[in-house]
Amino acid sequence: ILRTCRPLVGHLTNYVQVSDIYRTVFPKAALYMDVNLKGYEYKENQFYIKKLWKIAAQFKNIAFVFCDREDHESLLKENNLENSENDVDFVIYDLHNYYYIMRESFNEKNVRKFVESYVSGNLRPVLKSAPLPEKEFDEYSIRTLVSKNFDQVVLNNDQKDMLILFYTDWCDHCKKFMPIFVQAAQKFKEYTNLTFSLFDCANNVPPPEYLAQSYPTIYFAPSNSKKNPIKYER
How many angstroms from the chain centroid is the CA of residue 57? Predict the structure, then answer.
């Protein structure tokens, strides 16, 4: 029902009931601009919106919307787009809260290519990241991972197996488990083909292959299959 009753390109306001319809059922492709439904600005809005209509008709499993920058100021700030100098910005949000920003200029050809790349799984999301650590390893021979170095150290590195603990500082279960993880790292430190690593999810966002929805979460990443890790199920 929702697939057929929603508009082809809807106006996503900051009202919760409208937002929930789009955000929880479909990935959302959002066009951010200064929305004014009267006068000259309305014609300018329509110029951009009409470019989405043909594309939206092709991709029925994505909710295409246009949004006023002011209504979504806090979200744009999270996406580092609050100071954008573009007339419009185009962002896709998936159902796991990952987002993908189109960096090319906004036209029908670029938007179509961007959406097709998202659907085919060829886009990498923008990930919030803490600064790169000053030291690669701590005193327990545990490596610190952040979003900025995850691809290089994990996904594109087939030299070693890795055991990665995803945690947050505010999680009591994580605090209780951390000494056990450190003890295990010490016990296996002679195994040069295995690296123990920590990933702070309070200040970083893990890539989709390592989705962590509760904490602590542990993944074993085999050296020959880093994009298909094994999640430890308690």
Answer: 25
Q: How far apart are CA 199 and CA 150, in angstroms?
A: 9
Q: How many helices (H) and strands (E) does the chain have?
A: 7, 10
Q: How confident is the model at residue 17 (pLDDT cuts 50, 70, 90)?
A: very low
Place of tokens 């295409």: 64
Among 101, 107, 122, 135, smallest CA distance to 30 is for 101
Between CA 88 and CA 105 the distance in angstroms is: 9
Residue among 196, 1, 24, 152 at smallest CA distance from 93: 24
pTM above 0.90? Answer: no
Q: Would you state the torsion angle of the CA atoms of residues 125, 129, 131, 136, taken in this order, to the nearest 10 degrees?
A: -80
Rounded Cα gap, residues 18 and 10, in angstroms: 10
Query: What's the pLDDT tens digit per position in 145-184?
Result: 999 999 999 999 999 999 999 999 999 999 999 999 999 9
The CATH H-level superfamily of 143-232 is Glutaredoxin (3.40.30.10)
Task: Give domain 10-127's CATH number out of 3.40.190.10, 3.30.1480.10, 2.160.10.10, 3.40.30.10.
Answer: 3.40.30.10
Q: Where are the domains of the chain?
A: 10-127, 143-232
Q: In whole angstroms, what is the distance from residue 97 CA to residue 28 CA?
A: 10
